[in-house]
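Problem 12. The chain below contains 155 residues. Write out its predicted structure in token notation.
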Amino acid sequence: MNRTGSSSLTASPLLVGAVTLLVAFVAVFLAYNANKGLPFVPTYNVYSEVPGGANVVKGNDVRIGGARVGLISEVKPMQRDGEYYAQLLMKLDQKYAEIPKDSLVEVRPRSTIGLKYVELTLGESDEGLPDGGTLPLSQSAYATEFEDLLNTFDK
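Solution.
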């Protein structure tokens, strides 16, 4: 057996290292941006107004029937007629485009330590909400939390 010729099955250690670094860089990039949604994935954007802000933060889940369908990408404090509320930008998966215009939004507790998620209950309307449309404050609710229940017994 003669091993003096170059074999097509051996790879240069430099090439293997470069490919490994490239794969690691792409994995870190995707993991870092996962809270903002995956890149190059089309989304359906819907605004929603919720009472008092309800401790919702950027990156919280949006769920329909318990299944994750999107995330909160922006939270803005707003005021109308002396009443404060938050405007949420929900980035939903494209397959949920054109949700019914009479859909309801409820901020719910995800855990006892204060994590939240937004529950979207689809309405019955034949008219859909366009991309960038807004669900008004009248179609939102804030779930009662365990701490609020316990505070009812305080003096």
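Discussion. The CA atoms of residues 31 and 38 lie 9 Å apart. Students who got a different answer should revisit the alignment rule from Section 12.3.
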